[in-house]
Each structure stands twice: as structure tokens, then as C-alpha cells.
Design goal:
Helices cover 37% and strands 26% of the residues. By secondary structure, it is of the alpha+beta class. It has one domain. The strands form two sheets. Strands 3-5-4 form a three-stranded antiparallel sheet. It has a two-stranded antiparallel sheet with strand order 1-2.
Length: 89
């Protein structure tokens, strides 16, 4: 991780580089916004998949996880799940 110091309001603060792993984690609304090609008709389909995440395998594959009331999507694992669903059905 790179740590450069920059001046901000007269104080030095470290400039931290984002984790590549964290760049792949999204909240549902941001996932839809970042991938409009998957959700061209809105968020309803994702909401349905998330509602049944324990039954459809999203949770088991690690594509969706929660911390408290917050829900997160691992984009790489989600796409792998999506591809496997299309190959099976």
C-alpha cells in the first residue's frame, strides 16, 4: 500500500491507495449503477435475486454477504454465479 503525504487544510494526511479487492465489492445500488449492461430494465431483477440469495446459491458462492444490516456484492463471484446459472439452465 502506497502512503504519500499530502497537505490538506494545512495539515499533512496520508494518501492511501484503495485495495484492489475492495474495488470489487459493491452495495446493491452501486452494483446496478456500475453494471448497466446487466440491469438494463432497472434494479428489480437484482432485488429478486438478492431476496432469494440463500435459495439460489448467491450466499453459498460468496457472491453476496452481509454485515449487520448492510448487504454487499462481490462482483467477480456474482458474475461467476450468473454465468453458472446460464450454463445450467
Amino acid at each position: 500500500m502506497r502512503r504519500d503525504k499530502t497537505k490538506c487544510s494545512g495539515q499533512e494526511r496520508p494518501d492511501l491507495t484503495q485495495s484492489p479487492v475492495a474495488n470489487n465489492i459493491f452495495r446493491p445500488a452501486m452494483f446496478v449503477a456500475a453494471h448497466p449492461n446487466l440491469f438494463d430494465r432497472g434494479r428489480e431483477r437484482l432485488d429478486n435475486w438478492l431476496r432469494y440469495r440463500d435459495q439460489n446459491g448467491l450466499t453459498k458462492r460468496g457472491a453476496v454477504f452481509s454485515r449487520g444490516k448492510l448487504l454487499f456484492i462481490d462482483a467477480e463471484r456474482f458474475i461467476a454465479w450468473l454465468k453458472s446459472e446460464s450454463e445450467e439452465g
